[in-house]
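Per your request, structure below.
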């Protein structure tokens, strides 16, 4: 809730999406809910024809982890 997309671009099939700090501030506590958030974002973007993977950043900084989920590399 409250998260907005700051910017996005697609380069060689990877969608680089930059989100506002609310993405981290409103992170669910449970690992299952964290997985649901990441899965929903990645699957929604990968459903577009020219996107094979998604790299998540927050306020311009690539993240290592979203809770316990490794998001340091593009996800598909």
């Amino acid at each position: 809730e409250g998260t907005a997309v700051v910017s996005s671009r697609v380069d060689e099939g990877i969608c680089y999406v930059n989100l506002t700090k609310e993405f981290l501030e409103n992170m669910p506590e449970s690992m299952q809910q964290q997985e649901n958030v990441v899965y929903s974002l990645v699957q929604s973007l990968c459903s577009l024809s020219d996107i094979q993977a998604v790299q998540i950043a927050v306020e311009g900084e690539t993240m290592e982890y979203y809770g316990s989920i490794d998001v340091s590399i593009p996800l598909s």
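The helical segments are 22-25, 31-46.

Regards,
D.
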